[in-house]
Amino acid sequence: MTTASSHTARAHSFNAAAAQYAANRPSYPPALFDAVEDLAGRPLTGARVADIGAGTGIATALLHARGADVLAVEPGDGMAAQFRHSHPDIPIVRGNGNTLPLADASLDLVTYAQAWHWTDPALAGAEAFRVLRPGGALALWWNTDAHDVPWIADASRRIERHFAVDVTAEQRNVGARAVDPAGRLGLTQRTVRWSRRIPVDAHLANLGSHSIFLVADEEHTTAFLTEERRHLLQVFPDGIVEETYDVKLFVALNA
User: Fold this and answer.
1) Got the DSSP string for 225-251?
2) If you ran DSSP here, which 8-state letter would residue 99 be given?
3) Total domain count for the chain?
4) Could you give phi then psi for residue 244, rounded to 5 degrees?
5) Is there a domain that residue 214 lies in?
6) What is the domain-level CATH number for residue 31?
7) Which residues contact 97 (CB under 8 A, 6 or more apart)?
8) Containing domain of residue 71, as a range?
9) What are the pLDDT digits (tens) for 132-166?
10) Running DSSP on this structure, what letter comes out for residue 29?
């Protein structure tokens, strides 16, 4: 499989696991949205926002709860169906960041939560600034594993060995140079650390909702998750896993 076809397969893999994704993926802390407001220079309350690659609506719902007038944009059938099931009162349209189905200069904020890396940054950046009003902002963020936490570093090494992927390289790609290869967006960056405590089976379901797992052979994935459960119960004998994340936030202003 070519790199491009592999990327496409991983991008589409979530549609068959949308319910698992919605139930087990981590949310985002209030401090993240405080940081978005600070770097964007305006409150979310009353802001006209489009959340692109909205998926099942984890970030969209939080933007809505902060008082934003938010519209979701999602390309995937399965993810969009799950979004409508979970958030029937939030509007959603089909589309992707490379060709936004939105009017010029119509938004105060364009957001991407865990989604910018599925776009062509040059196309998506131009589209974001097209639909933003003067003074509006583009905000991109990712939950990334805190690899300075020993058990998380150990788990990442096990994933790398089993699936022959470089997990830390993927997370290093969530940086200004990778997010904006041409250096045209004028990004400012902030990191917000947070954690959550969940049952070990919920943690494994969260892992299994990632594209590395979804595109792998089912037997290969099941073997890893079975062995990983054993490792985790040695670290967390009460069966409650503490996941620690660094949310990497990037904001660009439309001057």
Assistant:
1) HHHHHHHHHHH-TTSEEEEEEEEEEEE
2) B
3) 1
4) -120, 130
5) no
6) 3.40.50.150
7) 52, 53, 73, 112, 115, 116, 118, 119, 123, 124, 127, 128
8) 3-145+167-196+242-253
9) 999 999 999 999 999 999 999 999 999 999 998 87
10) -
